[in-house]
Amino acid sequence: MFDTVVVATDGSESVKRAIDVALDLAGRFDAEVHALSVVDASEVDASPQQLRDELRTALETTADAALATVEERTEEGTEITTAVREGRPAAEICEYAREIDADLVATGTRGRHGENRLLLGSVAERIVRTSPVPVLSVRQLDPMAGEDDANAPAQ
Known about the structure:
CATH topology: Rossmann fold
Shape: globular
Structural class: alpha/beta
CATH architecture: 3-Layer(aba) Sandwich
Radius of gyration: 16 Å
Strand content: 15-25%
Distance between the termini: 27 Å
Mean pLDDT: 86
Number of helices: 7
């Protein structure tokens, strides 16, 4: 059912659970795994001209570290293709999924609601709305939640 899975990562805490879930799913279907991190071009463009090269380098380093995390969490012997792109994250992730003919995109989400979501936007939400393939959006569990809360159905 799934031959190619894209794991979209920015290296944040909210994506770590998504990485584990996506890798487990890919392993169950013996799917090819692609890990993708996108350097947000809008962050670079919004910075002062004299800082853009340094910021781009720092964001690329962060992207490389995010991909290294995926590689570290991947079972030994499992091949993984990694890529770093620059652009608008949701658009780049969806374009990458098209290019490699992916069957699934996996991403993390903080599970924000209401005003926070509206003010901050949501890359995961944009991916869900525009992806050419199904999207597995994995919500970060609240570390303060009890075991009963962790096993409760998502709202």
